[in-house]
Amino acid sequence: MSLNSVNTNVSAMIALQSLNAINKEYAQVQNRISTGLKIASAKDNPAIWAIAQNMRAESKSLDAVMSSLQRGQSIVDTAVSAGTAISDILTQMKEKALAATEAGLSTASKQALSDEYVALRKQIDTIASTATFDGVNLISSGSAGKIRALANTKATATIDIDHADLSTTGSVISPILANLTGGVASADIDKIDAAIQGVSSALSKFGVGSKSLDRHLEMTSKLQDTFDAGVGNLVDADMAKESARLQALQVKQQLAIMALRIANQGPSLLLSLFRQ
Fold this sequence. Notes:
By secondary structure, this protein is an all-alpha fold. Helix content is 67%, strand content 3%. The protein has 6 helices and 2 strands; from the N terminus they run αααββααα. A two-stranded antiparallel ribbon has the order 1-2. The longest helix is centred in the first third of the chain and has 55 residues, at 46-100.
């Protein structure tokens, strides 16, 4: 093909191809700068995009795990606060029971002590029945409330905290006296001591469970950060590098436009050959 042709301008075709390639790359760099991503869709790099998308899904799933762990923490914290209050009440009840063992105490004084004792006993049930968070109560009468917090994104592992009945009908506190009007023996004091120890034991188990939730929540948070950083390593654009490329492409684009303009002038220059 002749280079001196008015029908086919090869130089212009080459210049146009170069300009189109530069414009395509320029648009790609602009997209990376505007989105902050070097791989924004599957067409940019199918394999890497698929890996990043899977990691994003795993990271989002960890949100559900962390939410479950945090819910468990709140339930345990509520139970521990209420259980501590019950333990304090039992200590006061022991004080009243000991006072009632004093020889020569008047009937009126014994009745007053008993009334206080009974009021404290009722308060235990009030506290136990209201220690609820999100519908779960770990210390209420019965054994319905428990924690089964998610430990992984496959729902195949959980962190378990079981119920402990700290009401006056439960096995821990029910052996103590209902009132002090019938007299108080040393065995009755021992039963209150046993109840205090039982409540302390239940609270200790709650504390162990709470620590497990705390540790797993911290680990899950770090794992999620690792996933997010991994996704960033795969798909995030190097903004400094892209900025430099943008500047270079702007220069190349201007040069390509100039080259195309010169190439387009070629056929008109041939007219000078026919002038006399």
